[in-house]
Amino acid sequence: MIYRPVSDLGDENKGKYWDTLDYSAERINENYGPDRRKTFTKFVKKSMRVLPKGTWLDIGCGVGHLVAAAQEFGWEATGLDVAPQAVEIARTEGLHVTLGRFPATCPGNNFNVISAMCVLEYIHEPKSFLTQCYRRLAPGGVITLKLKNLNFWKYAERFYRDNSGIWSPQDIRTYSPCTASQLLGTVGFHSVRVFPWEVAIGSAINLPLRILGQTTGIWLSPNIAVVAKRS
To answer: Exposed end of the chain (fewer CB within 10 Å): N or C?
Structure first.
């Protein structure tokens, strides 16, 4: 795991980052377009193979694509996000999304699934965050995380930080499959599984990344999914 105590934003701007993100229609299509929606739909569909339908909380839900996919498959899904504009967009789509920060504004307890996609990287106290997730899951509930993979980013981070929009200046940690699994274990989660996260074909640069993930598995996949169960 890599820890970065200082973000690229500077301390004076950290709290303003999510308020100032551009959620225009053009930007949404660029970063949260149909490829991403398809990826989330596939993810929820796979989840249904091993999980009964129930309640699903998506922390850091953005404009609500994962919430929408879960609802489509019959889940009672809700989202939580700190970006006001993203929450407003999700609500205009009829999604149940709350503006606020986890866990202070958590809209309930005893969820069957809690997801946090590209969230743990900028949490200052990840063990506390995961402990709060554990407490809000029903017995036997599942947590699922999407994370940048340290095994890939320790080689590619500098290039992507300088030359693409993939790098997020809020990231303060990057996890390997091993450190992510160990962290979940210290909180009390068990049956931890790690697998490559499918790269959406949103741009030309994503195609070689997708091929790399498919051929190397979790070792050099740019992103990984980590799934674990609560006792």
So the answer is: C
pLDDT tens per residue across all 231 residues of the chain: 666 654 444 443 445 555 656 666 556 655 555 667 788 888 888 887 777 789 999 999 988 999 999 999 999 999 999 989 889 999 999 999 999 999 999 988 999 999 999 899 989 899 999 999 999 999 999 999 999 888 887 777 655 554 444 445 557 888 999 999 999 999 999 999 998 887 665 555 566 666 666 676 677 788 899 999 999
Q: What's the one-letter identity of residue 136?
A: R
Residue 70 in domain: yes
Specify the number of domains making up the chain: 1
What are the tokens at 38?
A: 């398809």
Which CATH number goes with the domain that contains 157? 3.40.50.150
Is residue 89 included in any domain, yes or no?
yes
Confidence (pTM): 0.83
Residue 1 resides in a domain: no
Supply the range of the domain harboring residue 101.
Answer: 6-229
Indicate whether 67 belongs to any domain: yes
Beta strands in the chain (DSSP E): 2-3, 55-59, 76-81, 97-99, 111-117, 137-148, 173-174, 190-196, 223-229
Answer for the pair 25, 89: CB distance below 8 angstroms, yes or no.
Answer: no
Closest CA to 35 of 168, 226, 199: 199
